Amino acid sequence: MGSRARDSRQAILDRLRSREVTPVELPAIFGDDSISQVAIGFDDPATQFAGTVEAVGGLCLQVGSMQEVLNKLEQDEVYRDAARRCSLVGDEIPGNVNLQEIEDPHELSSLDFLIARAEFGVAENGAMWITDRDIRHRASLFITQHLALVVSRQSILCNMHQAYERIGQPETPFGVFIAGPSKTADIEQSLVLGAHGCRTLTVFLVDEPA
Amino acid sequence: MATVSEHPEKAAAYIADRSRSRWHDGALWFVRSKRDRMAHSLPEWEQLRSTASQIKAHTIANLPEILQQFEANAKARGVHVHWAADAQEHNEIVLEIVRKQNATRVVKSKSMLTEECHLNPHLEAGGIEVIDTDLGERIVQMRGERPSHIVLPAIHIKKEEVGETFAKYLGTEPGASDPQYLTEAARQHLRSKFLEAEVGITGVNFAIAETGGFVVCTNEGNADLGASLPRVHIACMGIEKLIPRLVDLSVFVRLLARSATGQPITTYTSHFHGPRPGCELHIVLVDNGRSRIRDSDEFRSALGCIRCGACMNTCPVFRRSGGHSYDAVVPGPIGSVLSPAADTKQHRSLPYACSLCGSCTDVCPVKIPLHHQLLTWRQQIAAQGLLPVSKTAAMRAGSMLFQHPRIYALAGALGRRALRWLPKSWVYNRANPWGLDRDLPEPPAESFRSWWQTNRQGTSVDEGMKSKEAKNGK
């Protein structure tokens, strides 16, 4: 690729510079007269969020504590049937797969259940933000058959402008918004849950200090 | 050099199957309706569109600086950045990266750019297996077809046909057509491909100059598996995919899925800012004619397209004639603007595959004035002498007619008589393509002009009209 690629780089930039285009001002996203000022808000973002999670195919359970999360999980058939479970939310929820002990993400191909924590949720679309800060293998989020996410009720934001304001600058190489289970409508527009990623998504909306 | 392809001819076959054409129309209108519900649920929808449009206009104006800023920041995050002037160079760069890994198996997520560059045949010729992992793309790949829509690649195929294809290639039950069952079969098949692959290729929805990262949006999670299992991830993007700041994503992420499929957001919106530990991340920046479109004052704003497909779902011509009739990687209204920019002669008929209803312009989330651009293309195509004789001759005749009122009146009188008395075969034949699908109207007994003279002469409220008639010697 050596010199030819460098030539193409210069050629593209020269070409672009050869044509002066009338400048257009970059609009503000935050502050007066900006889109974030007029963006939709909700009196009770957490309730709106719970409704939106269900609308995009997830199951939202509102709980008071992590102990209650465990109780709900133990009542859940999918969790009970899961042979290989991974927990990234602390010792309250036990697991038998430890991401730290796994070198190659391909070993996760038989993972049945993953429970992880999301940093915050967004009411307008049911999305939750997760980074690879505490997740050794990004693949675990996508390869697991079933995914559960714990998110604090106090962390729910109204819209995506607030979400990116909160993210600030990305500190880790990977971050993802997840909204609902994996889905497709590629066969005659019939909605099918569980395309390549998780078949089910359970969201635990926990009441705890933000 | 590719041969000239005429949209009406390509569309004819699809329209001939009336029930399929109607079914396709209905399927896309359903998606368009979902888009409307989403747009109406946000009171700030129009401000979102204006903001997005301005961000894109700013980006395109400052593209060289923004590209260099992106490159520097991406490199600082350990990303390999490559530049490709055209499709050929893009394909060579990708093949070389794959070869360096001694890899033979590649999984790819949906990317219009790699379609545009015909990457698959290039890699396959180099002995590499390339598996498209988006379900719709995988279906068309197995069938040896091309996607017919940029967001819904298999929208033209019925579930029974998917069943036949899967029975042949995946060993599913013959005759099965249940989408749930077929999707499960594809899931199992593609999981094995994800686990085998040594390199994952994805497209890019948005690349952020300020951070050197990029975003990929999918519902299925295929890009995410393809990028997180293999050791090497190659992301291919057109140079117009950039946005200046991370916060700009808040605008585009809100618009994209709502405009595309009527969802509030895609299931997965993944942000890549550097390779996984011990792994490689490559980005290929591709021009392939984009800088030329940027040169044009008329078509520059088309570079702002975020590939949501809303213009296709709303287009009455696309809905009935199917995406393949456009014979272009990007079909529909935006494709009819972009394709002639790449090769005017080959795609000269596309700007005419349009009723100028303006619906595409109304739904475009970045406010590209699509139907105005299609009209501009018609003028340019005529000026370049690329119109077929059937159109130029008719235009010349029309122009002559409208410039000479006497001849116009005479032609009208003759036409009224001819339509009444001539046998059907004289009127409906190859010289009258208009009559292929339509009956000409029953001619009135008298012209409007003579009706006016009898009923309104001297009582007109429009003095201008009278004086004009007087001048014309009436």
From TrEMBL, chain A:
InterPro entries: FTHF_cligase-like_sf, LUD_dom, NagB/RpiA_transferase-like. Coiled coil: none annotated. Residues 105-206 form the LUD domain. This is Lactate utilization protein C. Signal peptide: none annotated.
UniProtKB/TrEMBL annotation, chain B:
This is Lactate utilization protein B. The keyword Metal-binding applies. Residues 450-460 have a biased composition (Polar residues). GO terms for biological process: lactate metabolic process. Pfam families: Fer4_8, LUD_dom, LutB_C. It comes from Rosistilla ulvae. Residues 442-474 are annotated as: Disordered. GO terms for molecular function: 4 iron, 4 sulfur cluster binding; metal ion binding. The keyword Transport applies. InterPro entries: 4Fe4S_Fe-S-bd, 4Fe4S_Fe_S_CS, FTHF_cligase-like_sf, Helical_ferredxn, LUD_dom, LutB/LldF, LutB_C, NagB/RpiA_transferase-like. Residues 295-323, 345-374 form the 4Fe-4S ferredoxin-type domain. Residues 463-474 have a biased composition (Basic and acidic residues). Keywords: 4Fe-4S, Electron transport, Iron, Iron-sulfur, Metal-binding, Repeat, Transport.
